[in-house]
Amino acid sequence: MHSSLIVKRDPLGYGFISLRHGVKHLIAQTFRFPDAMPGFNMRVARSETHIKNQAVKTAHVDYKSMYPSVYVLQYLWDLVIAKNYEVKDVTQETIKWVQDLTIETLLETTTWEKLRVLVKIHPDKDLLPVRAQYERSFNIGLNYLSVKSDKDYLWYALADIGNAKILTGESPEIT
């Protein structure tokens, strides 16, 4: 498959092509994220490898074009090409926003850019995406997740917190 076809359909393709055109990988940027954010990461897509170190024919299939749609609608490209990042504490505003969240709110296009927030949570039987082993392979599924102690926390995308709120009526504890 020609790489230009991948670029149009796959956010990973956007990343690979952007690296070829001089956009630096986040790790290679001159700025650093605060050490207080140890779980900080960006998850745009996932991949699995069942056949390693062997050339095989592949074909890209994305029936719904979900990843590139989310990538574009949340303005995630801005994060890829940013020269630096500013970290703001918006905990109280985020808690209020999630409490008031409805399906109708999520259908408003002005909402989508607001989902570009990382949230520190203390999950206690909250429905969240978790990478775990299901039968023979690791994958991502929605699971009821808890942490072991009151001092433990995890970082999640605001979109995942909103999903938990919509599906269960409850939001994980945002700290």
Largest sheet: 3 strands, antiparallel
Rounded to the nearest angstrom, the distance between the terminal CA atoms is 45 Å
Gyration radius (Cα, Å) is 18 Å
Helix content: 25-40%
> Helix segment count?
8
**Helix and strand run:** HHHHHHHEEEEHE
Which strand order spans the largest sheet, edge to edge or round the barrel? 4-1-5
Q: What's the pLDDT, averaged over the residues?
A: 76
Oligomerization state of this entry? single chain
How much β-strand is present in the residues? 15-25%
Taking pLDDT < 50 over at least 5 consecutive residues as the criterion, the unreliable ranges are 1-14, 38-46
Shape: globular
| Helix/strand/pairing category | alpha+beta
Question: How many strands appear in the DSSP assignment?
Answer: 5
Give the topology, please.
Blueprint: H1 3-9, H2 11-20, H3 66-73, H4 77-81, H5 91-100, H6 103-107, H7 109-112, E1 118-122, E2 124-134, E3 137-146, E4 154-157, H8 158-168, E5 173-174
Antiparallel strand pairs: 1-4, 1-5, 2-3
Helix pairs in contact: 1-2
Note down, in words, how this protein is organized:
- This protein is of the alpha+beta class and 175 residues long.
- Helices cover 34% and strands 18% of the residues.
- It has 8 helices and 5 strands.
- The protein has helices at residues 3-9, 11-20, 66-73, 77-81, 91-100, 103-107, 109-112, 158-168, and strands spanning 118-122, 124-134, 137-146, 154-157, 173-174.
- The strands form 2 sheets. The protein has a 3-stranded antiparallel beta sheet with strand order 4-1-5. The protein has a two-stranded antiparallel ribbon with strand order 2-3.
- Strand 2 (124-134) and strand 3 form a beta hairpin.
- Helix 1 crosses helix 2 (11-20).
- The longest helix is centred in the C-terminal third of the chain and has 11 residues, at 158-168.
- The model is unreliable at 1-14 and 38-46 (pLDDT under 50).
